[in-house]
Amino acid sequence: MVKILHTADIHLDSPFALEDSCISQTRKNELREAFTDMMKYVRERDVRLLLIAGDLFEYEYATKETVSLVLSEFERACRCEIVISPGNHDPYAENGVYRKTVFPENVHIFSSETPAKFSFPDLNTDVYGYAFCGKFMERNPIASLRPDNPDRINILCAHADLMSPISKYAPVNEGDIYASGFDYVALGHVHNGGEIKKAGQTFYAYSGCLEGRDFGECGYKGAFFGEIDKNENGVFLNLNPVRFSRRRYALEKIDVTGCTDISELARQINDVIIANGYGDDTMLRVDLQGNVSPDLEFSSEQLKGLIRPVFSFSVSDNTLPLYDCELLRDDPTVRGALFKRLLPSLTSGTPEDREIAALALRYALAALNSNLDSGKQV
Hints:
The protein is α/β, with parallel strands linked by helices. It is 29% helix and 25% strand. Helix 1 (21-44) packs parallel to helix 2 (64-76) and helix 8 runs antiparallel to helix 9.
């Protein structure tokens, strides 16, 4: 029985594109901390095989400081065999980290787009894989790949795209996994990992990223840890997700139809924050939807002062104004004319037409009201 940890898509030194530069730097530091926490976990749990399925580094931004940190952590985990399959963001390229750096003896890095194998007799395990040597790999690298010795534990560590047959990032499909004969396929490239799946007799999974970097990677992130064994009765695999992320991104859509003031908006947002346990570990973005009073005005900063504390907060206002249609229909001024001009799109247009017309009405009426308040003739 072999203790393994499967991770991928760590993207060390990745820039965090956030509005606040201080928060961006904090997040970069926290990503390093998540990595060191993972390596501490490897040592404490006596993990014997660490599988890194690509994108350990962010190739264009990797610093000497971070590379030194990685080398130190790998060296400290001397009882663990570390296998790396370079991905499209950290390819085995001429000026890449892997070619320029001398790694400890327990680190094994695939260096060619042609699949190869690392054997670990003490673990009765063979690990197969390949490397991205540039940004793209448009061919399927595992179409005919099969283990040499079916009696050993056979693992494929691969940065690949199971989602699209025309992907530029090593397109593979479930049929390839089904026919492969591997016991476990440790995948990287998809940042939102899922559960352990099975195709034929082969288990496979995306571990997901170690730390979310934007609102397309919501929720807590981490890696898979557990055990794999093989005997005459078949393969035994017990892997479970372990959280290593410092924080989580959260995106919430809230229908605030009928809201007339900012206090009511804040109350509805607070209800969502409480229900989901959001707090200092949460980067929250709220998408407000529905129909509200045209007089309702607010900003992210105003709302932030009224809601329960979270690490960061932003709001996207996708509400539409709720007008007194009868009053506007009978209005003899330019307001009524404007409303009648937009009415066909507001009532019978496509959803996109209705949204555009509603926004046009909101902005036009706001401008007219502004002119009226300033004393101009309308």
